[in-house]
């Protein structure tokens, strides 16, 4: 689409009751990001109440019409996905505005491939609009969904804005002058760690010509707070409802001794075979989904499921040829007399999906008018590399979507809700806690990605013996397994921290996932290294991870930029002081703007003499400091204590908890209160 054009969704697909809108961008440095926001406007171009504004601290509508699904990595950056159940949008809403804003003084011109895409309930992409020439703007209106009679249309807006604080409040009815804003302001002053971004609303014009930019109000960035405390928006209405979050530390037990085992809702001791594990895991998950709407919506909204009454079933017999088929589970959602149905096929304990089995379920779903088939295994699906190949009969009018979930993602969503974001009541929190305990038990078989594959040992030996050649298909298999492992590490760390953790894909590496993996496989053959970068919210830089198959060492590192003010010696002393509890073998290197490199040493040696981090030449400019830890790499391909997967998990966890957590959070630029008041006036 081009800027200003519009299209009726019904002209693009027969299945647009639910749609998923994705906002995406690429960053040359891998660190660029933005926040999305959604506003529901009435016929007067105003929100009906503060609850019509959705952002990461208010991500879900109570009626299920809007749900921010969060970020997901792509081949060239990341995407923010938003699920809209258009059948549930209240009649009083005429327009749905979708925007994104940057923070910390960043501009959209620093990003590449800024775009919005829209997919129907079957996951088929319907439209794409590229926002070109974003330039120096800090906020962009990507597009809007709006009613025309009984149908919904989409307009490509692409409107950018520089600054502004009062547009939303004065023109669209959002009241920001309340006690919550004042309390948040005081908290941010004390923490000195707030971050801001600017969100904007487009002018309510049917035609794109003559649009006038409206002033914007800063989009909320989550300030630091105590563990488990819901993060509050800055200068924003109190939209997030009070929810139940379980404490991280368990209450003192009443048991007489450690031999007493706590009664569990979902016991795992009776599980003996893979079939037992598969059947029990399916039943446990589907039962919790049917009772905890917040959780089930997290898992199914991205698949096009509407918000409504959900029932789940296991071991359902469905006719197929001469013998019936029994999918592991069925999910049905009813809304306004209509049914949405998905067949579920699960695998546990590292067992792989069977292509013929999934194909049969796709055929059954198509014949019976079901909407989706959902596969659930320990594996992680990669873009451009499906877990199973199925054939789609395009002659059929009814389309069936094939979706995949990993058990690691299920555990991540449960952990985010009960540890960080909260659920509606204590019973829901307890159910999710029991589910999480079950999934994390060693006997459940739901441990996520746990095998580097049969190519791991031959590739490792080939690198050690220098016999591995470029173009070897086994190297590509290892690269794909490495990417799956990195994505799972991000899920686990993100679930523990309650923050977004995403693998970085730099734009310069190309946008085609297959070509990118082939290049990485060739590089593995040359230097024997697997490398990845992780972006963690609230950290001063990108965490890099390198596995050297020649030396058997894992290196975790982060680059800390030099402060904008102060003296180099005070920088060095402050850094060493903050790392007082870090491991003594932590390597610290001074980054300089010369080719010779800066001083380096272990923390143990630098603690008594931080000045050793300063270059001898006083004219050499210090750009930052690199902190890194080395750890022995596991050799086995599996998830055992001595395996490679476990060693990578441990390395990232150790580096974050012992090093990164002690570093200063990125400094955030913030509009002074006087300027904010002036802008509001």
In short:
The protein has helices spanning 167-172, 179-191, 274-291, 293-300, 355-368, 407-421, 426-440, 456-465, 473-497, 513-527, 568-578, 603-606, 644-658, 673-680; strands at 6-8, 18-26, 35-41, 53-54, 66-74, 77-85, 95-101, 112-119, 125-130, 139-148, 151-161, 196-199, 217-220, 309-314, 329-335, 338-346, 372-377, 401-406, 501-503, 529-536, 543-548, 553-561, 587-592, 600-602, 622-632. It is of the alpha+beta class. The strands form five sheets. Strands 19-20-21-22-25-23-24 form a seven-stranded antiparallel sheet.
User: How many individual helices?
Assistant: 14
Q: Roughly what is the average pLDDT, rounded to an integer?
A: 82
How many distinct beta strands?
25
Radius of gyration: 26 Å
Strand order of the largest sheet: 19-20-21-22-25-23-24
Helical fraction equals 25-40%
State the end-to-end CA separation. Answer: 38 Å
**pLDDT < 50 runs, ≥5 residues:** 164-169, 176-241, 668-681
Most strands sheet: 7 strands, antiparallel
| Strand-pairing-aware structural class | alpha+beta
Shape descriptor: globular
β-sheet strand percentage: 15-25%
Protein described:
The chain is of the alpha+beta class and 681 residues long. It is 26% helix and 25% strand. The strands form five sheets. The protein has a seven-stranded antiparallel β-sheet with strand order 19-20-21-22-25-23-24. Strands 1-11-10-7-3-4 form a six-stranded antiparallel β-sheet, with no helix packed on it. Strand 8 and strand 9 form a beta hairpin. The longest helix has 25 residues. The C terminus is likely disordered.
């Amino acid at each position: 689409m081009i800027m200003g054009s519009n299209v009726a969704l019904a002209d693009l697909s027969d299945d647009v009751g639910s749609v998923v809108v994705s906002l995406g961008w690429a960053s040359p440095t891998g660190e660029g990001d933005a926040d999305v926001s959604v506003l529901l406007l009435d016929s007067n171009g105003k929100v009906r109440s503060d609850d019509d504004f959705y952002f990461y601290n208010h991500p879900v509508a109570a009626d299920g019409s809007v749900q921010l699904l969060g970020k997901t990595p792509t081949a060239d950056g990341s995407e923010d996905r938003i699920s809209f159940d258009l059948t549930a949008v209240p009649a009083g809403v005429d327009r749905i505005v979708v925007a994104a804003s940057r923070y910390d003084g960043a501009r959209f011109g620093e990003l590449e491939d800024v775009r919005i895409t829209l997919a129907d309930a079957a996951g088929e992409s319907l439209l794409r609009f590229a926002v070109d020439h974003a330039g120096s703007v800090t906020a962009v209106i990507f597009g809007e969904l709006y009613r025309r009679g009984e149908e919904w249309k989409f307009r490509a807006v692409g409107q950018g804005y520089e600054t502004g604080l009062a547009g939303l409040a004065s023109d669209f009815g959002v009241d920001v002058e309340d006690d919550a804003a004042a309390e948040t302001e005081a908290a941010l002053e004390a923490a000195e760690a707030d971050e801001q971004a600017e969100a904007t609303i487009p002018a309510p014009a049917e035609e794109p010509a003559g649009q006038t930019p409206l002033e914007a109000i800063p989009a909320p960035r989550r300030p630091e707070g105590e563990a488990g405390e819901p993060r509050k928006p800055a200068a924003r209405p109190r939209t997030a409802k009070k929810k139940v979050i379980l404490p991280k530390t368990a209450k003192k037990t009443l048991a007489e001794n450690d031999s007493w085992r706590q009664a569990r809702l979902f016991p795992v001791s009776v599980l003996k075979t893979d079939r037992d594990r598969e059947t029990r895991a399916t039943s446990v998950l589907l039962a919790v989904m049917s009772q905890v709407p917040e959780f089930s919506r997290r898992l199914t909204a991205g698949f096009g499921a509407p918000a409504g009454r959900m029932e789940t079933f296991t071991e359902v017999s469905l006719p197929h040829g001469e013998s019936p088929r029994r999918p592991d589970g069925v999910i049905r959602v009813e809304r306004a007399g209509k049914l949405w149905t998905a067949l579920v096929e699960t695998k546990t304990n590292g067992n792989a999906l069977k292509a013929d089995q999934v194909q049969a379920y796709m055929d059954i779903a198509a014949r019976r008018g079901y909407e989706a088939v959902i596969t659930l295994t320990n594996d992680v699906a990669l873009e451009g590399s499906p877990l199973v190949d199925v054939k789609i009969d395009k002659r059929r009018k009814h389309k069936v979507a094939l979706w995949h979930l990993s058990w690691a993602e299920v555990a991540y969503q449960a952990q985010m809700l009960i540890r960080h974001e909260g659920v509606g009541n204590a019973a829901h929190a307890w159910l999710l806690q029991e589910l999480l305990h079950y999934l994390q038990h060693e006997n459940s078989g739901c441990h996520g990605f746990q095998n580097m594959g049969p190519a791991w040992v031959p590739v490792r030996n080939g690198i050690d013996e220098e016999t591995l050649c470029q173009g070897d298909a086994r190297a590509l298999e290892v690269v794909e397994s490495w990417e799956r492992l990195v994505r799972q590490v991000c899920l686990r760390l993100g679930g523990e921290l309650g923050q977004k953790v995403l693998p970085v894909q730099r734009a310069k590496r190309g946008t085609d996932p297959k070509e990118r993996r082939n290049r990485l496989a060739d590089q593995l053959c040359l230097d024997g290294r697997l490398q990845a970068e992780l972006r963690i919210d609230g950290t001063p830089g990108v965490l890099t991870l390198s596995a050297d198959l020649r030396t058997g060492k894992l290196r975790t590192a982060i680059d800390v930029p030099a402060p904008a003010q102060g003296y180099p010696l005070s920088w060095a002393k402050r850094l060493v002081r903050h790392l007082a509890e870090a491991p003594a073998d932590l390597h610290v290197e001074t980054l300089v703007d010369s080719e010779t490199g800066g001083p380096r040493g272990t923390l143990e040696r630098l603690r008594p003499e931080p000045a050793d981090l300063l270059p001898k030449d006083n004219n050499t400019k210090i750009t930052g400091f690199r902190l890194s830890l080395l750890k022995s790499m596991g050799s086995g391909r599996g998830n055992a204590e001595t395996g490679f997967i476990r060693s990578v998990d441990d390395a990232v966890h150790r580096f974050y908890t012992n090093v990164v957590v002690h570093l200063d959070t990125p400094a955030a630029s913030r509009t002074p209160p006087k300027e904010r008041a002036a802008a509001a006036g």
